[in-house]
Amino acid sequence: MSRFFKGSDSESESSSGEDEIVTTRSAAPTKVFQFSDDEEETKRVVRSEKDKRYDDLKNIIKDLKNKKKIKDLSNVLTEFESLLKAYDKAKKVVEKEGIPRFYIRTLVELEDFVTECWEDREGRKKLNKSHAKSLTTLRQKLKKYARDFESEMESYRKDPDEGDIEDDFDAVNDVAESESEDEAPSTFLKKDKPAKPARAVDDDDEDEWSQSESDSEEDEDAPTDYTNMAAYFLKEKTSDDKKETKAQKKLKRQLVKKDADKDEDEGEWEEVTGKGGVPMVVEKPKMFPKDTEVNHEAVCKKLYEITAARGKKGTDRQEQIELLKELYSIAEANKLGYAMSVKITFNITAAIYDYNPNIATCMKSDMWDICVDGVKTLLGMLKEHSDITVGANITEDTESLEKSPFLVRGCILTVVERMCEEYTKMLQACDAHSTEYVERLRDDVKVCAIVDELVNYLEGRATSEEICRAYLRKVECCYYKTNQCTEADMDVLCKFIYTNDSTDRLRTRAILCQIYHHALHDRWFQARDLMLMSHLQDNSHHSDVPTQILYNRTMVQLGLCSFRQGMTKDAHNALVDIQSGGRAKELLAQGLLLQRQHERTPEQEKIEKRRLLPYHMHINLELLECVYLVSAMLMEIPYMAAHEMDARRRMISKNFHHVLRMSERQTLTGPPESMREHIVAASRAMKTGDWKACKNFIINEKMNTKVWELFQDDRNKVCDMIVSKIQEESLRTYLFTYSSVYDTLSLVTLADMFELDVYKVHSIISKMVINEELMASLDEPTQTVIMHRTEPTRLQALALQLSEKVGNLVENNERILEIKQGNFFFNKSGNQQNQQQGGGYQGNQQNWNKSSQNRRNQRQHRAY
Question: I need a surface site. Which of 139, 431, 449, 573 has the fewest CB within 10 A?
Answer without folding.
Answer: 431
